[in-house]
Design brief:
Elements (H helix, E strand, L loop, with lengths): L5 E5 L16 H14 L6 E4 L11 E4 L4 E2 L7 H16 L4
Parallel strand pairs: 1-2
Antiparallel strand pairs: 1-3, 3-4
Length: 98
Amino acid sequence: MTKPVRLIVCVNRRLGTGQRSCVGSGSLGLIQSIEAMIADEGLEVPIVRRECLGRCEQGPTMRIAPAGPFFTEIDEPKLPLIIAQLKAFIEFQDGSGS
């Protein structure tokens, strides 16, 4: 049995001057946008907020789980790519890939 697909979004906020973080780079705003896109596509993919994905310098960071690809330096124009990857990942798990 396969684990349900979910999208993990880093919501880490690093303290200290000059330290880049996913929240500081806009991940919270992107969550609202991608949640709306997921709903518009009729996908049942929960968003999981995680404190750190270990890629602060490349934030905002997202990852398709379980064991899916990472997406770094995300901005609004990159969200359709993530939606396309989510669909492909779900199809792979439901179809020939399971």
